[in-house]
Design brief:
With 129 residues, the chain is an alpha+beta fold. It contains 4 helices and 7 strands; from the N terminus they run βααβββαβαββ. The relative contact order is 0.14.
């Protein structure tokens, strides 16, 4: 597996990961715009995971279901943390998302719970490191 910055030929794999990972995935045009910000991929023959930022904010972190719990998310987070060293790195995560555990293990602290952030009764944690 190779960890590297996102490149345009990765788009189809990243778009696929977004589609299978989120109940309300973004459109192709939104994803293309977001990928102009710093983003990293973990890739083998295909992209296994991707982290996309929007300034010093994690906009999306996805890992292919069959490759979760293998440290890929942590590696991607480490790259973003290195890139934004000296800055506070923030994110939002659904309160029931298992990824919240990963963020806590990596040292992210919950600043607040935002009611209905993702829709009615879909609260988010606002986390920082």
């Amino acid at each position: 597996m190779l960890l590297r910055r996102y490149q345009p030929p990765d788009f189809d794999d990243v778009f696929y990961l977004q589609q299978i990972s989120y109940s309300k995935p973004c459109t192709e045009s939104v994803l293309r715009a977001k990928l102009e910000c710093p983003a990293w991929v973990a890739a083998g023959s295909v992209v296994l995971g991707c982290l996309i930022t929007d300034g010093p904010e994690i906009w999306s972190l996805v890992v292919a279901p069959l490759h979760r719990h293998r440290g890929i998310g942590s590696l991607l987070l480490a790259e973003a943390e290195k890139y934004f060293a000296g800055q506070t790195l923030g994110l939002h995560v659904h309160v029931a998302n298992p990824a919240a555990r990963l963020y806590k293990l990596r040292g992210y602290k919950t600043a607040e719970t935002i009611k209905d952030f993702y829709g009615p009764s879909l609260d988010a944690l606002r986390m920082y490191k």
